[in-house]
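Try it yourself: sequence plus adenosine-5'-triphosphate, in.
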Amino acid sequence: MLEIKNITKKFGALTAVNNLSFNVRKGDVFGIAGPNGAGKSTLYNLITGLYPFEGSIRFNGQELRGMPPHRIAKLGIARTFQIPQTFPSLTVEAGVGIGNCFGSQDGFDSSYVDQILKFVNLDRKRNQKTGQLNLLDKKMLMIGAALATKPKILMLDEPMAGSNSREIISLMDLIKRINQDMGIAIIIIEHFMKVLTELTRKLLIIQTGTEICCGDPVEVTNNPKVIECYLGSTKDGEKDSENATGEHRNSESHAGKNAAEKNLAGLNNAGGKP
Ligand SMILES: Nc1ncnc2c1ncn2[C@@H]1O[C@H](COP(=O)(O)OP(=O)(O)OP(=O)(O)O)[C@@H](O)[C@H]1O
Ligand SMILES: [Mg+2]
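Structure, out:
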């Protein structure tokens, strides 16, 4: 369905994405992880038409390179952002409705918007202003607006960031339902390895824009090259294991992690061990 071949993106002297290739098939859940600044969000920006790049991205056989974002959305590729973005003065219903107007090929469909509001559990809050929503509901709204475009692929950028363990469980349940009940393929960027090993069928690890390895999520998270890429080669255990849990240096969306989330996140927990 999505074929990414030898894509490279340079910002001046910095190569943010370096000759990456991978495929996402219909119905897949495909994971992407890597340290801060690895190029994960840039990759989404390339797939959704925000920047020019070298290489090729084909979606159901059609080349996306050079295509504007609104056309890519209408073909069936939707995304969410690392930091939830809403129009604060609009209602929840309007926020989801905008997604339907912008991305759907079939024109505005209010009954579909209703369906999505129920699916993301925002039906009862449909008349609230989006600016009043808590973080979990803002994320649900952002996912709802993306689903309202009737996508074939939904790309999630760190959906668990800043969430507590209860919220992580809700979001994981939603992602499974989107994939299984709606038949939408998922690409998920995430730092929580436990989430990736539970949700995904294939996992790509990148560092400084370059593939470190790609394959079965449990095997990938046990790969020594991946462990080194997260932990570094120093023996400074406490500091380094903070990195392995995906602590961020520079993103306000990661401020709210607690100990339970760190347990969920640990590389050593990959594969379902307690
Ligand atoms: N528009 C831009 N102009 C210049 N440099 C950029 C731009 N966007 C991203 N970069 C740089 O490209 C590199 C990759 O950034 P990107 O945001 O893709 O990383 P990331 O893997 O998503 O990191 P994080 O886990 O912190 O979200 C970083 O060094 C970043 O500073
Ligand atoms: Mg990012």
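One thing you can check immediately is this: The first strand starts at residue 2 and ends at 11.
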